[in-house]
Amino acid sequence: MTIVDIGIPKRLVEFTVDGETVRVPEGATIIDACTAVGKNIPTLCYGDTLEPANACRVCMVEVEGSRTLVPSCSRKAEAGMVVHTDSERTRTSRKVVLELLASATDLSTTPGVAEWMASTGADPDRFGPDAATVAQPALVDNELYVRDYGKCILCYKCVDACGEQWQNSFAISVAGRGFDARISTDFSNPLPDSACVYCGNCVEVCPTGALSFKREYDKREDGTWDESRQKQTTTVCTFCGVGCNLTLHVQDNEIVKVTSPHDSSVTHGNLCIKGRFGWQHVQNR
């Protein structure tokens, strides 16, 4: 039996995950419980700072007594529930979802996908060369971040981060339907002419690299991007007195991007344009 240390909760819910008894606070989701006990469930659209979008369907698990598989990112844990995260049904579902996503979009910069596809035996090429695709050129219309929508899986995380859940700028939304569905600015205006305030919080939550720092994009293009050589240092932003935490990603003694810890009580992973992009002066030579 594994008991998760969650302080002094008002009420605990006890249920079973893959034969192991787990206790979590009432209201916790299945994926929360699995993460707490070290079980990693693949997911793309789930974000620990956002409300579940239920879009990617990669995190589906089997619950005994349920007719269909359920999304672990949003399904609340219930007392007595019996969950299987690696059954034949979940593996088949995950395999097909990954195949459909990879056949239509470029997942080459999506962390973890290669391992997930190998473990499930997913083969996107089985749909043939005529499979529908959203391939399109990257949009480079500013010096801060790049939009490469050929890698977009329409997980809605950027829309939520830009909207009412965090920034409240509402600069982007989903336009079109079916295979024409896409992330777009208002009236498809260029980004500099939109309501975007360049906070970069959409870049922070993007799971596939469809949104990336301009410096990261350039280094990937010329083949010099290497995360194994990068060091991360967390510090405090000096632009104002709020006290936002910054994590500097440094490669070859050069800052290549800035993020913020999601567990920070000040930022929760979010920053403004100064904190996220105002670091070029540090290495202005």
For this entry, give a set of tags.
single chain; 285 residues; alpha+beta; 6-stranded mixed sheet; 3-stranded antiparallel sheet; 7 helices; 13 strands; globular; 4Fe-4S; 4Fe4S_Fe_S_CS; 2Fe-2S iron-sulfur cluster-binding protein
Describe the structure.
This is 2Fe-2S iron-sulfur cluster-binding protein. Pfam families: Fer2_4 (PF13510), Fer4_Nqo3 (PF22117), Molybdop_Fe4S4 (PF04879). Keywords: 4Fe-4S, Iron, Iron-sulfur, Metal-binding. It comes from Amycolatopsis plumensis. The chain is an alpha+beta fold. Helix content is 20%, strand content 20%. It contains seven helices and 13 strands. The strands form four sheets. It has a six-stranded mixed sheet with strand order 1-3-2-6-4-5, sandwiched between helices. A hairpin with a 6-residue loop joins strand 8 and strand 9. The longest helix has 17 residues. The radius of gyration is 20 Å and the shape is globular. It starts with a strand and ends in an 8-residue tail after the last helix. The model has no long low-confidence stretch (mean pLDDT 89).
Write the layout of secondary structure elements.
Layout: E1 2-3, E2 12-17, E3 20-25, H1 30-36, E4 60-63, E5 70-71, E6 82-84, H2 88-104, H3 113-120, E7 145-147, H4 157-162, E8 172-175, E9 182-185, H5 201-205, E10 211-213, H6 214-221, E11 230-236, E12 245-251, E13 254-259, H7 273-277
Parallel strand pairs: 1-3, 2-6
Antiparallel strand pairs: 2-3, 4-5, 4-6, 7-10, 8-9, 11-12, 12-13
